[in-house]
Amino acid sequence: QYYALAIIFLLFLSGGVALWYIDRIRSLRTLYQQRIDLTRQLLGDHEIGKSHAEWSENRNSPDIAETKLGFDVLYAIINDQNISQMGKHEEQALLKVLPMVDANLSAILANASSSLTPKETFFCLMEYYGKSDRQKAHSFCCSDQAIRSTKSRLNKKLDIEQLRLI
Q1: How far apart are CA 166 and CA 71, in angstroms?
Q2: Alpha carbon 40 to its chain's center
Q3: Residue 111 — φ and ψ, nearest 5°?
Q4: From CA 109, how far away is CA 156, in angstroms rounded?
Q5: 88-101 and 64-78 are packed helices; what angle lies between their axes, rounded to 10 degrees?
Q6: Which among 41, 63, 43 is positioned nearest to 52, based on CA atoms?
Q7: Contact status, residue 154 vs residue 124, Cβ threshold 8 Å
Q8: Which of 59-63, 88-92, 98-102, 114-118 has the lowest mean pLDDT?
Q9: How many alpha carbons lie under 13 Å from residue 22 in its C-beta half-sphere?
Q10: Main-chain dihedrals φ then ψ at residue 124, nearest 5 degrees
Q11: What is the SS3 assignment for 34-66?
Q12: 36: closest CA among 50, 48, 19?
């Protein structure tokens, strides 16, 4: 008799847990649906129907691949990796994500007296992050003389001291 009572008790207990679980799932689904409805109201129904291309175009947001490329370039610069083969495409991706990372640095680069080459832009980031001339030469795969030459040309376009003071 005790075994039968124990089995009946366990059946009631498992049934109660199952009912609680089903109720919990229903409440979470309701909460999820409410949040979706609220998001749709905030975004406006007319924007929900737009295609992804129109959405990205209207928001002026870079696509995911370009954003990832920008962060990959920044990671390579910070971690002294080889950036000698990076060019204009990588520079543009980096300049699109840089305001998200550091708005002051982005503003300094935008205020250069003339447009910067990709190498000069990367040089500015290295200077900003406190890289030595030896580390810069290693990343660019060039000599110390080439780094001094780049620094000299860059000083004519931008005050490098601004980068060191930030």
Answers
A1: 21
A2: 25
A3: -95, 15
A4: 13
A5: 90
A6: 63
A7: yes
A8: 59-63
A9: 6
A10: -60, -40
A11: HHHHHHHHHHCHHHHCCCHHHHHHHHCCCCHHH
A12: 48
Tokens 């990076």 belong to: 86
Place of tokens 């799932």: 25
Q: Are 122 and 147 in contact (CB under 8 A)?
A: no
Report pLDDT for 61. Answer: 53
Tokens (6 digits) for 158: 């931008």
Q: What count of residues does the chain have?
A: 166
Mean pLDDT of 93-107: 87
Q: Residue 71, Cβ neighbours under 10 Å: how many?
A: 16
Asked if 163 and 136 count as a contact pair (C-beta separation under 8 A), the reply is no
Q: What's the chain's Rg over C-alpha atoms?
A: 28
